[in-house]
Each structure stands twice: as structure tokens, then as C-alpha cells.
Structure prediction request, 496 residues.
Amino acid sequence: MSASPPPPVVPTSSGDLRGRRLAAVQHFASVPYAAPPVGARRFAPPEPAPAWQGVRDATDSGPTAPQRLRPVPGLDIAPLVGTGWTRGDDYLTLDVWRPDDDRTGLPVMVFVHGGAFVIGSKDASVQDGATFARDGVVCVSINYRLGIDGFLPIPGVPTNLGLRDIVAALQWVRAEIAAFGGDPANVTVFGESAGAMAIADLVVSPLAAGLFRRAIIQSGHGAMTRSVPIARRLVTKLAKLLKIAPSRDGFAAVPTETLLDAVEKVSLPTTRIDLRGEDGREPVFGISRFVPVHGDDVLPLPPLDALKSGAGKDVDVLIGTNAEEMNLYLVPSGVRDKIGRLLSWFVLRKSQPRAWAVLKAYGAGRRPAGHALTDALTDLVFRWPARRFAEEHQGRTQVYEFEWRSPAFAGELGAAHAVENAFVFDTLATVTGPEGLLGESPPQQLASRTHRLWIDFARDGSFPSKPFDRDSRQVYRIEAGEAAYEAPMPAAPFLP
Prediction:
């Protein structure tokens, strides 16, 4: 009877790591890419992780960024965003999955999780990187600072700390991934929702230049940033709620649980705060108060303006959306079917100065107002800004649409936000069941094909459609398996 092989051990510049074997895959969990962001390092740029003696155990999922989850009626969200806050200081970490063999020079894919910049972690089961390692990719998934610690421009504190964390993780990948069999010159970053927004921002960031060759942007784009002066209104609001000075020392003195209480309160739609920009638009449409800012060394310009000047042209981009993104927000809650015309206008007016015209363009008056609002927000928040990113990106750009409709919520959830992730990772079982995002029997064939599309793009940029440009407007529809011309959307006149 043969003995089991010993656990895998990989050397890094900080010390040796001991992982574990899972089928034909090796997994290294919670590897520190930066020092714990506590004490003097809490509101500071990420610093290198300290070295260790001996072999570090890398088999436990470890701490996550402080956060508080909110349940969604009728939907199990844990597979999508993780189980919430696992306490501990050492959470600027990443996981690595690699094939259980001695291959080298493999393509590398680095995943950035979503969660509106306030929740989520590398450990959500839907994004298990073992499936990519199984298929010949070295896959990495990362944690980064969230909420107040990661995306609040507190006076005296460096801005965009969450983005700086992601850059630090990518620098770790460039320096260390060869020891895991990966090719540091063939790195693809990919992410969904807020993770995709972060990636879109880093495509144009001078701090991230040269750290990745390709980017896959799932339900994200570069339009969800604010200027520092606008974002400082959030600092002022939170400081008043907490009864502290709007400063580093003020926020650092507040217990984490109390900060999370304040994040929850300021995130309520009933909380009064004006985060509209100079043009009267609120670029995040109330989905999150916490987003990256532009006007610093991370994002000197708004990302769309940076694209126009040629930033990111050396990065191959695959960007896309789901056909019915906002269903995730408005179907489980019942809002889509209950909200009337006047309230629809009121909701949209907070973010879009021409709210009546938008609703009319989406059929309000001829169809239920809530359905018009949902479709309008799908295009305003996700689909059209993604096309605008594709239009302005001067490098090679592919655009996809994920149109498979989930049968959850009596068939009404449809091609909602986050539906594509389990297909991308080939992890359908994690979100299947009575309260699963994908219902009872999602199609494995579509998952196998979607997963392969992502791998092929990461390997060498292959994609089964012509690049997107303003004239041909070729969008590859993943379920249909074909590309077609996509006309500009009704939302086009209402956004930059």
C-alpha cells in the first residue's frame, strides 16, 4: 500500500509555505502579501509582509476584512460573498491554486472579489480557484481593505487604500508566482461587480502599469469613481454620525463594530447625503457609498478620461455585463413589481437629473413603472458604462453579454447581477438549490464553455469574436455562442 504524498511546500521570499492537496490541485491559503493593516499601518499604504522562520502553514482560510452582511430575502448569499467577518489582523492575504504537478510557465489569473467595496472575501465558495488549477492555470484570489479602511478619503490618510492593496497583491504575484509554476509575464486580472470596477480603475492607473497583461471586467467599468471633494462629504457625514473629528485619529479611535454600525446606517437609502457630482449625476446610483476616488496618484484622472489619453492601451480587455443586472437588487425585494411611477421617478431623480426622460425612454406609461425603472438602471448602472469603457479603450477590447436566465424567484430573477460567476468558475453546485442564485438545474454545458472562454483569453488573448469598436459594435452573447451588432442603448444620451 503506497503512502500518501507529503503536503506541498513552496519557497517564497518571506519564507516557505505548506499547502494541501485536493484531487489534482494544490491549494495555499491566506498567504500574506502585505503586513497586517493595524496600529500605525491601519490607515497607511500596504507594507511588505514580515518574513517568518521555518515553514508557514497555509491551509486555513484565515481572517477577512471587517464587514457586516445583509441578508437577501429568499437567496443564500454566502456562496457569493462569503460568510462575513472572520476576525483577525492578518487579512491582507491571498490564496493560490496550482496544478499538482511540476509544470512551469502557466498562465496566471488573479481574481478580485465584489461586494460594493464593503463586503466580500477571497473565500466565497462560488469563486473556488481549484477549477482553474485543474485546467492548467495558476489561480490567485485576494482580500483587500473595505469600507472606511479601504475607500474613505479621510483627511491626512492616503486615498484609495483598497486599490493600493490590490496593487500590492499584484506586485507579490509578479515577484513570487514563478515558484508556484506561474508565468509572471502572463497575468490576467479578473473580477466581478466591485472587483471589476477596481480592475477597470487599475487598467488606467500608473501604479499598476506592467503588473498584468490582460483584464476581464465582469459587470464593472470605470465610471464609478468620485472626486475627492465629493467623497469628503461622506467623511463629514460619518464623522457627525460617530461624533468624532473627520481625521485619521478620529476614525482610528472608534471600535470596529461601531464603525460597521455607521457604515450600515450611512448606506441606508433613507440616509440623507448628496454625493452627486458637478454634472448633477450620482455615478454609483446609491448602490454603495464607498467607491474609489480620482484625483490622486492612483487615479490622476477619471478612468474614462484616462482611457481617452491612451492609458491602459497595452492591456487586452474583455469586458461585459449580464442582460438583466438590476434584477438582483429589485426582484427578491419585490420592489420591481410594487413600485409606482412617481416613486420610480423619485428614486431615479436622486442620481439622474433627467429621470422622467429616462423612464419614458424605457417605456414608463406603456409598461409597469418598476419594470421600466429596473431595465433603465440595468443599462445606466452597468451595461452602457461598460460599452463606453470599451469604446474609449485604445487597446484590444472584446465585449460579451451573459444572457442565460436563472429560474430562481419563479423565473423572474433572470440574467441578474452575479449570475455569471458560477459559470466562469465552473462551480454551479455552490449556487444550486431552493435558495440558490441559479435555481435547481443550471446547464453544466454552458459552465464548461464559459469557463473555457475565460481560460483561453487568459492563456493568449483568444476570444471567439472580433474586437469591439464604435462602428461594428460586436458583442459576443455567451449562451447563444455568437457575436452580433449591438445598437446604442436608450440610456446613451443620459450618460457621459
